[in-house]
Request: fold
Amino acid sequence: MAIIYDKGVRSFHLKTKNTSYIMKIYREEYLAHLYYGKRLEVNDIGLRFEERAHIMNDTPEDRVFSPETMPQEYPAFGAGDLKEPAYRIRDARGNYISDGRYVSHYIYHGKKGLEGLPSTFAGEKDAVDTLEIILEDSLIGLAIVLTYTVFEDYDIITRNTKFMNMGKETIRILKAASVSVDITGHEFELIHLTGSWARECRFNRVPLNTGRIELDSARGVSSSQHNPFFALAGKNATEDYGDVYGFSLVYSGNHLSQIEVDQYEQVRLIMGISPVNFEWKLESGACFQTPECVMAYSSEGIGKMSRLFHRVFRERLCKSKFANSPRPILINSWEACYFDFTQDSLLELARESRKLGIELLVLDDGWFGRRNSADSSLGDWYPNTDKLPEGITGLAERVNEIGMQFGLWFEPEMVSPNSDLFRAHPDWRLHVPGRPGHQSRGQFVLDLSRQDVCDWLVDAVGRILECGKVSYVKWDMNRQLSEVGSAVFPADQQGEIYHRYVLGLYQCMERLTAAFPDVLFEGCEGGGGRFDPGILHYMPQIWASDDTDAIERLSIQYGYSFVYPWSCISSHYSVSPNHQVGRVTSPETRAYAAMTGAFGYELDVCTLSEEEKEEIKNSNRIYREDRELLAKGDFYRLLSPEGHEKAAWMIVSPGKKEAIVYYFRILAHANQPFTWLKLQGIEDTEEYYVKELRRTYTGAELTCIGLPVSNFSKDFQTEVFHLVRRDLGG
Reply:
């Protein structure tokens, strides 16, 4: 078993291949956190206490022990620990104090799913064990179940928390974190991912000082502003050296991460649903389940942490049949024609795309209702027969006859004020009575906290997909939530609507992806506004950004790579000059910047020069040859584009037999020194043939000295190298 309970010292030791996580039942049934880090072979580590002035003590006789200085596993509010709590409640008497103490635990093989929420899962032969620890506040009848699952071979531990009202009176949950971890020492820096629309997921690394940092979203979605991920890295940690602790929340709504360094330089990490506008009515006998948090520790640097997340997300979070498979090369109609298209123009786009080796045509916005601009028809999910006289089925059949798959865009969570749906059901939107409500992009948000709305959504999308001709769905969302209220819940449950919306969304995604398992679903929220593990559970790829400029995408995709597998980052080649920033880049650079993700195109190929068409043909040929490795390989960051004039990364096959290296020169300079690119992830003792250089190197040469790369004389240039181990015929 990967979980050991030592009865003698009353400790729990969770072990992965390289990690230990140790807790202890201490004194008056406190659950203390002892250690998280590199694997140890001891089950007990002593707690250290000293008498401190102005701290809380359980008894006046003992001025040494204090809940405030004890590292707690799931700290409560107001019961002696004055740091940030993991949870807050209000009982029937209006008190906010709670104090959960250990009462029992269970250890079992395998892993249970979370009701109504996405989570990781165990394979049939996986070495996976689970520990449930029950804390209880007997005064108010509140039980708290802390669940830890150890994926031993993946070097991953997951956590979630469940609240159970065992008493007779209603309890209000005001804050419910999925995870809290107290770590000794303060020599850390915080890594997190920030941004906005069209500049998502920018890498940030800042020092930790005494005080509290909060990273959150109160937008109703995980957001482009703060991705639900952070990591603590030792001050000297690099890509391949040092201690790193990573935390990723499997959730798509409002979230909060808190990183607190207290007066004694102890670090407390908390992650979960944001308490902003959150209040859950927990009646007698009821339960509340938090989302799951995935934790990855690496003693070998930031890159190893990323690869731990990549593997478990690809293999044990995303349940789509496409999760570990190469994806088709697609072309999306949006930047080719926006709302202005006919069936004939789409078929011409398909024919020209097929000649270039593109495999899937995606019809984006404008195909439904009376949709000719962004101000009408969302919710009217029936074909616009003025544009598509043969409907979706007829168009899809004609696209299939050309030799291409067919995909379709939906924005299922939205409704236009100018739509048949809104006129029939104005109360189906999120709204607060008496307030007009703010529109964004001319649309409102449907109230997915309502079961009748969820049922309608599943039926409306399902009716289109039932034709069996749609191979791909892009699930978009082009606004965030405001005036969040529901017509069907009473006043004392309006604080539940943000979370109930997310639960409704997950229900819809679960039902549709289960009903249509052969459809490749892609998530989107105005670009990367909902790029999170919750969506990844249902959809194996997510649109990274509406900014398709190749150079901007280097930073965006670099940021996503810290936690998300490269294969799930949807990335497309677009027109030059770029529509978002006006930059001019070569076809080669645009292709190589995009093809390391889920590859596709955003332009009208019918209008391209013959020269660029040949470039695209060649890029598609290269991608088809490489996509198996790109889908399953291990990702290594070599050079950061942030604040530099170059970027590089590489993908290595699981057996280290092959690798692809991508080098991007962002800005060129005259008379540059020689550049050597040190590689990672290959075997030092093996020989590798570099196809583009027609030369063989030892792995040690490539990792210690480096690969010689070109000193480009122009901006925005790219170089790619394919490595094959010599014993494989390289």
User: Anything to note?
Assistant: The radius of gyration is 27 Å.
